[in-house]
Amino acid sequence: MFKPLDPLLHSQLRLAVMSLLIGLEEAEFTFLREKTESTAGNLSVQLDKLEKAGYISIEKSFKGKRPLTTCKITTEGVKAFEAYVENLKNYIS
Fold it and tell me: Domain named Winged helix DNA-binding: which ranges (predicted)?
């Protein structure tokens, strides 16, 4: 029996963000934007959805006089990502 894939993680950009964050302690917004090749606006919307789901935490601060947004994957996010990968493997095999 196949378990459904998490629709929140099934989005290409959100999955890319989670894939990056799973291997990092934290990542700055600019790093995520460059790696995913997304627009700032689209990335911002997708990060907000992941944060509302409890999959990531977002911290806003300043680096000198410039705003700095840092993202971290949460324990719940790690569990959701690992479950997504396992479910995907079931579909493949």
Answer: 13-92
